[in-house]
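This part of the workshop introduces the protein records we will be handling. To make this concrete, we reproduce a full record directly below:
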Amino acid sequence: QVQLAESGGGLVQAGGSLRLSCAASESIFSINAMAWYRQAPGKRRELVASITKGGSTNYADSVKGRFTISRDNAKNTVYLQMNSLKPEDTAAYLCHTDSGYWGQGTQVTVSS
C-alpha cells in the first residue's frame, strides 16, 4: 500500500507562489500516472494536473500557464509549482496515484 504525504501548503497573497510536494512511501517509478486534485469547501473535487511516467502532462484550464507539475522518480516525489496564485485557488490539494491511493492533503489559502 502506497502512502502519500503532501506538504508545502500555506497562506499566500494573490500573485504569490507556492510549491507543493507529494512524497510517496515507495518507488513511484512503476506508477503510470500521478496527479494533484483540489477541493474547496462546498465544491466537488477537481483534477488540477496530472503527469505520466513518460512525462506527459495535463492541466485544468483554470491553471494552465500558472501551475507546473513534475515528478522526480529518484526521490519518489511529485511536485506542483503554483505561480500567480488567485483567491479562487484556495482549496485543499491532494495527491493521487492512478492505482487509487490518496494523500491527506495540504491546505492552500490565497488572500486577496
